[in-house]
Design a protein that fits this description.
single chain; 285 residues; mainly beta; 1 helix; globular
Length: 285
């Protein structure tokens, strides 16, 4: 069994069911802060500010303060799935967020891959690989199946997609095998793998992403937290984090039919409405 097939086998252990939340829980994200030994996993209130937004901290075994490459995604059973991308062999952990207990801690020889972003959708992993500069889908099928490459995307810096919510990435566009230098936020169809332009990015140093059915969350190297509405495609909130969160995930359970959440899932409708980016990025016609 090769390394990528082994990673696909782990993916088969995680499936998703629809859970209804009423009323909707307040927006919050989990972030990885390697600069705080013994308190690396941070639960953060999206509408808090700096250290006052910290709701809880938990230790994560094996994280070095110098580490910056992680994949993090939330399941809908209050668990997080964490990949430490700079470990060799790579460390894969399942964490129960109600207690901070690491429920499983496994090592896999994934070869030269460096997982720098992670999304979960219907039992499949969407993983950004910093080593190859590609975005992969690892299906929930047989362990020997090779992961599929998401076409038209290169150099993905992070991935969003938690508890079965839409998959997003911050990446460059690839045309006829040539990178275009057009870094932006793209939504990935989880079935066809077709990328669709979603928005300019508010920063050119995005390192963490997470999403539920209501919001898309992004963190960058300047300790910013950006919140986008999936209903309008617009940037609705910006906050300052207590530290750089090198990965984001959420266990906030929001489904398309949850109360006030009415989301345009049609990819063509998810376009930015008048947002002016503060980066060098360009909107793709």
């Amino acid at each position: 069994m090769n390394a990528k097939a082994c990673f696909g086998l782990v993916a088969s252990c995680f499936t998703f069911g629809q859970v209804h939340a009423n009323p909707l829980p307040a927006p919050a994200v989990w972030g990885i802060d390697p600069s705080s030994p013994g308190e690396e996993l941070v639960y953060y209130s999206v509408f808090g500010y700096g250290e006052t937004g910290v709701l809880a901290r938990f230790p994560i075994p094996g994280i070095d303060p110098a580490d910056t490459i992680f994949g993090l995604a939330g399941n809908n059973d209050w668990t997080l799935f964490l990949v430490q991308g700079e470990r060799a062999p790579q460390r894969v952990q399942s964490i129960h967020t109600r207690s901070g207990v690491v429920m499983s801690d496994m090592e896999f020889d994934l070869g030269d891959v460096q997982i720098s972003g992670l999304g979960l959708w219907d039992g499949a992993f969407f993983a950004a690989d910093a080593a190859t500069g590609l975005l992969y889908r690892h299906r929930d099928l047989i362990a020997s199946e090779e992961p599929e490459i998401v076409p038209g995307i290169v150099d993905p810096r992070s991935v969003a997609g938690d508890a079965g919510s839409p998959i997003f990435t911050y990446a460059d566009r690839l045309v006829d095998g040539v990178p275009q230098g057009e870094y932006a936020i793209y939504q990935i169809d989880p079935l066809t793998l077709e990328p669709t332009y979603f928005s300019v990015s508010p920063s050119d140093s995005i390192v963490g992403m997470a999403s539920d059915y209501e919001y898309l969350y992004l963190s960058d190297l300047d300790r910013n937290l950006f919140v986008y509405s999936l209903r309008t495609g617009g940037l609705v909130f910006q906050n300052e984090l207590p530290a750089v969160f090198f990965a984001l995930g959420t266990t906030r359970i929001v489904t398309p039919d949850s109360g006030s959440v009415l989301i345009a899932l049609t990819l063509g409708l998810l376009s930015v409405l008048g947002l002016r980016g503060v980066t060098r990025l360009h909107r793709i016609p």
